[in-house]
């Protein structure tokens, strides 16, 4: 049976043989208890990502040795379940030429409309009136080569906003949540502008930390330096290019970027030291958590259970009715 999209695979397919076209995103050769090699793949399309295993690794070794991550494959496999999660046992696997398929069908994409997201960015940019803060956004976001990446990169590798336009959607969510708190709590115009700027820039360096889709994973500098340091470092470089950049704004914006993970154990080298930075941190957490719950629930839609499996980053399962 040919399956159009991975999301269609359900418990009803258990023990059935299906065929599907997907992209390999990760692969690891492992050993069974009896020292036999097998391969663990993660495959995905625009709808979902699932695990697939091939126990006959040795018979297909030449194929697997030439297989690269981000390559499209056609798989014939048997649907199974492991710890409540559906997976595939591969019986047959072959490469698919990129010319034969639309690669975008295999990459998850934001379901928000791209042009309205871009208008959203403009809406918040227009609220910044202070010339040096505006100039910083011009340099870091609204120049063509940055803008294209900023609008297409994912915001995460796993869990939340890990799709085409993910960074754009995440930043827009953060801007909206942060703006709501800022206006509810009557922040001053200058505080509001700083909050907008740090929201725009907090994850900016993800365009350096991650590889460009369809490739996934970290770049070398991303692995070595991370987006928090790189974001602050690049922001400081651009600030130094701007004449008479206010020194207090500089400290506050940089602290917002460095502190946005909110805790030292979450990778921030300093804690948020202003109300703006604290709002940014909460807006960031809110955007990531809600997105991860919603996308997880969507993935688990096909299952009949009352609750989802445990969502590891939240440490709990979610109620599916209602
Ligand atoms: Fe971040
Ligand atoms: Fe973020």
Automatic annotation (TrEMBL):
Alphabetized CDD domains for the sequence: HDc, YhaM_OBF_like
TM stretches of this protein: none
Entry keyword set: Hydrolase
Residue stretches making up the HD/PDEase domain: 163-298
Record protein name field: 3'-5' exoribonuclease
Taxonomic source organism: Alkaliphilus peptidifermentans DSM 18978
UniProt GO MF annotations: hydrolase activity; nucleic acid binding
Classification via InterPro entries: HD/PDEase_dom, HD_domain, NA-bd_OB-fold, NA-bd_OB_tRNA, YhaM_exoribonuc/phosphodiest
A biological process from GO: rRNA 3'-end processing
